Each structure stands twice: as C-alpha cells, then as structure tokens.
Task: inverse folding
C-alpha cells in the first residue's frame, strides 16, 4: 500500500518500534496493531501522519485515541491471559468512535459488542470494519451507561470515554476474573483497572495519567451536545 511514494507498512513498523520504546511489552498487542492500517480510520488529509503517537480529529468533536493508549488499554485488558488468538468469548467496548480500538479488540475476542453514543460515528466505524473485512464486531448506537444487554457476561470491558466515577453497574456484566479498563476523572484523569474477583469484590488499580473526552449520558444524532 503506498501513497505519494511513502509506504504505510514502513511507518506502521515505526509505530510499533515507538510503542516498544514507550513500554508496551505484550507481543500479542504489538502483533495485532502491526496488522491494522490506522490511516484508513482518518480523513485523507491526515494520512501522512496517521502512525504518529497522537490523537487526530474524527469529526463530531471526537478523536481517535493515541496508539500508545490503545495499546496500553488492550494490554491491561488481556494481561491475566497468556494464550494467543481469540482468548475471549465476548468483549464490550464503550465509546468506539471511528472503530480503531474495536479493530484491535477484534483480534482477541470471538465477538466484540461496541456501543457509541454519536450516530454518524456508528456508521463510520461499521464502514471501517467493512473495509478491513472484520466481521466479529457489532456496533450499536446507544449510551454506554445503560444500553447494554444485562443477560450477557463479558470477559472484559474497555471504555474510551471518562466518567467522573466508574459506573458500578458495569461490574455486574463482567465475568469473574475479568476487567473493566477505563479512564476515570474530569480535568485530571487516570487509567483505572477494575477487576472482578472470585468473591464478587472488586480490586482497583491505577495507571497512566490520560486525557479522554468525558463519558456523556444519552445518545446524540449529531454530536452537537458533546
Ligand atoms: N477508541 C476510539 C476513541 C473514541 S473517543 C477510537 O479509536 O476512535 C471516545 C468516544 O466515546 C467518542 O466517540 C464519544 O462519542 C464516545 N462516548 C462518550 N460517552 C459515551 C457513552 N455514554 N456511551 C457510548 N459512547 C460514548
């Protein structure tokens, strides 16, 4: 794949080197990210810089997450497992935006349920999955605070928008030993991992300082309320 003489494969390899330098160690995550063309998730104007470790606008006042953050959250979600391939049956993603993180998750679960509150982004992420021929992600237009199916238990939940406190209800749809990975906070946020233990208690741990868009309640036809 090339564009104006530069090869995306080469810059994607540079992105992986950069992720290693930044401390991402799980080869399963690095392997998945080395196979996903990040540029196709962006407007063509950003293609030449699509593999830099930064976020870019995806419209509707939202951004695609930095590659490091996508890698780190995925690494935290799967860190208690050590086999390769589709280690999980079902994963829930909240705030799927343009679908880049969803594409990464599609490598690790038989099925990914993704919820996004801005309607046009739901279509955008579906289009992106079609381009990549990824067919195990189901996108739903809804509010990640409540619009999930109570009867399903997930092997992991990854949320890419920051609530003030983690939504306790999400723990009830986690399997035992599974984790909820998400940013928590307002002006100052940290990556949190909420693990559901055998006795149904939770264990919380805290990681990088991050800067995500807020997790907003309700759905939006156009993102104007974001
Ligand atoms: N990982 C995404 C980044 C998306 S940014 C990507 O790779 O593109 C966070 C997304 O969370 C935004 O699209 C925003 O609309 C969405 N969001 C915020 N609050 C939400 C909620 N309550 N339910 C579902 N999605 C939400």
Result:
């Amino acid at each position: 794949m090339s564009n104006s003489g530069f090869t995306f494969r080469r810059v994607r390899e540079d992105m992986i080197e950069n992720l290693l330098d930044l401390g991402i160690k799980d080869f399963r995550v690095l392997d998945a990210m080395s196979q996903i063309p990040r540029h196709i998730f962006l407007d063509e104007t950003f293609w030449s810089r699509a593999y830099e470790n930064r976020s870019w606008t995806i419209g509707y006042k939202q951004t695609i997450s930095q590659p490091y953050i996508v890698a780190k959250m995925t690494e935290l979600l799967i860190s208690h497992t050590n086999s390769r391939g589709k280690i999980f049956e079902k994963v829930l993603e909240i705030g799927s935006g343009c679908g880049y993180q969803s594409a990464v998750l599609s490598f690790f679960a038989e099925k990914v349920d993704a919820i996004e509150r801005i309607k046009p982004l739901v279509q955008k992420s579906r289009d992106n999955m079609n381009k990549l021929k990824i067919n195990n992600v189901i996108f739903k237009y809804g509010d990640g605070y409540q619009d999930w199916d109570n009867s399903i238990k997930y092997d992991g939940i990854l949320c890419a928008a920051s609530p003030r406190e983690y939504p306790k209800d999400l723990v009830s749809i986690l399997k035992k030993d599974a984790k909820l990975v998400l940013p928590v906070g307002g002006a100052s946020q940290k990556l949190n991992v909420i693990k559901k233990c055998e006795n149904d208690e939770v264990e919380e741990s805290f990681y990088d300082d991050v800067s995500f868009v807020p997790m907003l309640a309700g759905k939006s036809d156009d993102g104007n309320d974001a």
In short: Residues 58, 62-65, 94-98, 100-101, 115-118, 121, 143-145, 160-161, 213, 215-217 surround S-adenosyl-L-homocysteine (CB under 6 Å). The first strand starts at residue 2 and ends at 3.
